[in-house]
Amino acid sequence: MRNAGASIDPPTDPFEAIPLPSRPVPPGARGPKPPPGAQPQGGSRLPPGVSPDIFGSSGFGSPSAPAGRSTGLPPAAQPPQPWQMPAAPEPVVPQRSLRDEPGLMPGGDGGSSKLEPLRYEEPPPRRRRGRMFALVVLAVVLLAGVAYAIPAVVMSGKMLPGTQVQNIDIGGLTATEAADKLREQLGDKAARTMTLLAAGKKYDIDPDKSGLEFDVVATINQAPSDFPAPMEVWRALTGTLKLDPQISVDSDLLESTVTSLAKKIDVKVREGKVAFEGVKPVVVTPQDGRILEQEAAAATIRKAFLGPEAEIRLPVSVIKPKVTADVVKKAAAVAGKALPGPVTLTYAGKQAQLPVETLAAHLSFEPDDSGGMSPSFDAKNAIATVEKRLVDPSLAPLEPTFQIVGGKPKLVPGHKGKGIDDKKLADDVAEMVAENGSRTIPVTLATVQPRISEAEARGFGIKEKVSEFTTPYDCCLPRVTNIQTIAKLLDGYLVKPGETFSLNGVIGQRDTARGFVPAPMIQNGRLVDSVGGGISQFVTTMYNAVYFGGFEEVQHMAHEFYISRYPAGRESTVSWPEPDFRWKNDSKYGVLVKTSFTNSGVTVAFWSTKRYDIESISSERYNITPFKRETDSGPDCIPMVGQNGFTIDVWRVFKQNGKEIKRVKETTVYRPEVDLKCVPAAAARTPDPPAPPANPDDATNADLPGAVDAADATNATDAANDVDQ
């Protein structure tokens, strides 16, 4: 192998492969320096049998080689250095090389080749403390888990201990058990009558009929009953959970209850006013009003349900009138001087007078924005009797209406026209009264639109007759003239959906210019002649059309005395300006008023869309009061036929498809009608015979169906049985 090339075997000389040093290696450079004269530990570094002389006098390892001289050998390798490690967070046992251990390298201390064992170093105290802390935390967590888990398992699926509803303990019960207990102990409380207090009066309501109910399920659902959370367990062990009883509310029923209460509690504010009775000023004293705050009242009732048993105060607001009584009295003094004579209206060379009576009927003093009172004139109604004298009727607007053709309503369109500018005239008259100005006022014309448009009328749903009523009379009396006159004025009149019809508002004051004539009416318990007397029969006829049509009654007043031609408890009177007769079209359809008359009676029919079938039920007459007998010798005496007074109840029953929807009761009290005889002055001093005793079974003509009252035998006695205006 030697002859084949370079040998791959290691050289015989161990140092053969080491390059020779470029300068001598000083003694001790590869280990500790030996003492003088001593042989270096470990002997010669030359192989056995190799003489150092071959390197010369300064050869490697020669003790006699001078210091600093080159030995011709390569420099010794540096001892291995430990690897530089990055600093660790924990203390690290230092690693030392074999060369750093004494006695492990040639030339080391003592020349020993014995290896020393590594020593174990204890970890620092900080690590020991961390381990102890972790053990403590783990123990605490385990104990807490056990302390939570055991009661949580016991409480799971039940009401947590300490759970209460109005001091009723339901803790530890299942949901079913808790519900049964609450129903048992709160059932009576939920059913008790609630007493409400408003404006000094008490009102009782039934919670069930008012839509209030104790909701047991919702009450229990407030409490956790599944596997409890740690905080729930803690609360159950250390405290209580108070639950408010929950209620369910039928909003419609509660709203209906509050609305009914408002009708009993509310009082409309009465503003101070000065009007006229005839031509004499009459003072209307201002009066506070009140109103139930319905939304807040409903909330109060809901909150009080299932609460302490006590009177519940409802929120009521007081409404103050705009002016005081003193201001009204001052205005009355001014009003007494406001009507020295008539007012003349002029237009295009024509003129018409407004009499003092007409001015007084439409003039009043109302509160203004400055805290005082100012004159107010209703020109629209005041000019109804004179407008035709100033404006050609062919120019007047025409209201749409319906004609009945073949039993079906057919629309007759209306159109706009020209008329007196009533707003300007109202301002002019008010200014004249306030400043005592000229009593001649020129009027201007304005375009006047019909009250109802043709499109509105088409959408009224007028398709069938919904009610009709007839009352009889004897032919050819002055009162009959008035009945037929008002019937003509109202024939074809349309009442809008939601509109309130006012007879005085539509007809105005009765006057001779429109065909009304004087006829008897009752005033202060006696009969007197008045223009328009007798139209209360028309009002009674319309009242019954309203009654059987199912529409809402707003204002009506029964006659003071009972009149046999009318159904007892279902009739009404009227006067100017009060009392009025008013009713509301509370349907979503329009109402067409159709009137007709003959020599023996008057009829009022309503056309619309039928909603109800109405039945009327009357009680027997009770509280019979005997009449008195009197005589009078005055020039204006009108005889009256005596008649007992009585009380009667009438129920209005609303039905749909044969099922009763509701019924409304109304009680009417009739005073006894005096038996008055008109006699000469000498006969008036003769004592009157006593009246017969009151007898519930007294067979008067009023009690006999179809009978004609004896008062109808003469004009005077017929008038005695009528009350007008």
TrEMBL record:
Keywords annotated in UniProt: Membrane, Transmembrane, Transmembrane helix
Disordered, as annotated region: 1-125, 682-725
Start and end residues of each YoaR-like putative peptidoglycan binding domain: 228-307, 373-441
Highest taxon of the lineage: Bacteria
Ranges annotated as biased composition (Pro residues): 21-38, 76-92
Keyword Nuclease appears in the UniProt entry: no
Transmembrane segments: 132-154
Basic and acidic residues bias spans: 116-125
Low complexity bias locations: 55-68, 696-725
Name of protein: Vancomycin resistance protein YoaR
Lineage: Bacteria, Bacillati, Actinomycetota, Actinomycetes, Streptosporangiales
